[in-house]
Design a protein that fits this description.
Length: about 60
């Protein structure tokens, strides 16, 4: 089965981007959220990357 990157609806905090990335990488979503938060505070441009990912990534329910 081919892995796909998508946003999740179940268990999402804001737009489901970190949850989708965590599911794709098979890690805990909290780890991805913590890493993303550190990147936001270190390099403010991560906020824009999150917004772009939220727009571009399809929602899991739309893919199925």
């Amino acid at each position: 089965m081919k892995k796909r990157l998508y946003r999740v609806e179940e268990g999402k905090m804001i737009a489901g981007v970190c949850g989708g990335i965590a599911e794709y990488l098979d890690v805990d979503p909290t780890v991805v959220r913590l890493i993303w938060a550190v990147l936001v505070f270190a390099f403010g441009t991560s906020i824009f990357a999150y917004i772009i990912a939220a727009i571009i990534m399809p929602v899991k329910s739309e893919v199925d």
